[in-house]
Amino acid sequence: MDFRQDDNAIRETRSRRVSRRSRALAGTLALLALGACGSLRNPPPTDPDDLADYKAANDPYEPLNRKMYNVQMWAYHKVLRPVGKAWIWAIPRPVRHSIANINETWREPAVFFSDVGAGKPRRAGDAFMRFAINMSAGVGGFFDVAGLVGYNQHETDPGLTMGTWGVASGPYLFIPFVGPSNFRDGAGYGIGQGLTPINYVPRGYDLLTFNWAYNVAGTMEGYASSIDQIDHVEQDSLDPYSYIRSAWQQNRQSQIDTIKNDDRATTPDWYN
A Pfam family in this protein (predicted)? Predict the structure, then answer.
């Protein structure tokens, strides 16, 4: 599977992550409770080479995580993949792109505050401008007008910000219907939800219906956009679980390094 993402793949990845609402918190709590059981945790091996691999994988709860992965894949083949295929068939591509754009736009405040926390004013400014432009000229985020004028989408979340601070990731976790995570990113997810304005829609208003539609459509688009990647991993990998774990961990570390090394001038390129 190629993890080099073009603009559409990045947009689809955002929509998948933004759509994971209360399930993420519930899944994390369930994993932590189950992880207390010794039978669901691998003890450190005594052989030096095996111990090095054990530490590199950072997956002491591998027995539990593999069970959760199997639950996810059972649901994928029985329900999620067929429904995702139907979604792709029924929903025109421009509409699907607009759904991804909405998810990105409503998440920009969380990106902004994460960039501020990471001490990256240029990135924070880009996120601010993306939100302002797309919420106005982009009709509430339906269109990525900000990208057309040079404010391209970028990835930052509270988990990544804590990573730039040197906060340890903690053990790897696989949460059903959410995917790969860890203790640091689980906490970061909760913070990110608190920074996402769509979560503060008051009950009794018509916007509450939009909130539900936003979550459902984002979830559907996320699963649908992942079908080809998941199928390739299953077909091409001897151990898909290990492949996904390694790829995800490397990608998160690469994102942290990208944020750390982003030392662009505060003023945007067009100002110069």
Answer: MlaA
